[in-house]
Specification:
It contains four helices and two strands, in the order αβαβαα. By secondary structure, the chain is mainly alpha-helical. It has one domain. It has a two-stranded antiparallel sheet. α1 (3-21) packs parallel to α2.
Length: 100
């Protein structure tokens, strides 16, 4: 699969997941920079991207929606202070993928 079509496919699947979760931050109502928060630590050591998306889709199929919370980046940062400090979020901010 070409890189462009892989990105399109990933974004389409992620979009369907966000829509299934409500497509709005459950805390403030924002529709910007949405992320999925595990209310209960999942114990699944994933590296983000595809692995995380597949894991979250599986949780929905298993009827575990109550363990997930759709939040915007700002609310997620308040729930878990480590969000946005290092890892994928920092790399994306450096590459222009997220606002600093």
């Amino acid at each position: 699969m070409a890189a462009a079509s892989t990105i399109f496919y990933y974004r389409a699947r992620r979009g369907r997941l966000l829509l299934a979760l409500g497509d709005v931050c459950e805390l403030c109502g924002s529709k910007d920079r949405l992320e999925v928060h595990h209310k209960i630590k999942c114990g699944f050591d994933h590296d983000g991207g595809w692995h995380r998306l597949i894991h979250l889709e599986a949780m929905l199929r298993e009827g575990r929606r109550e363990e997930l919370q759709l939040v915007c980046f700002d609310c997620h940062s308040q729930i878990e202070p480590h969000v946005g400090r290092g890892g994928c979020a920092e790399l994306m901010a450096q590459s222009g993928g997220l606002e600093p």
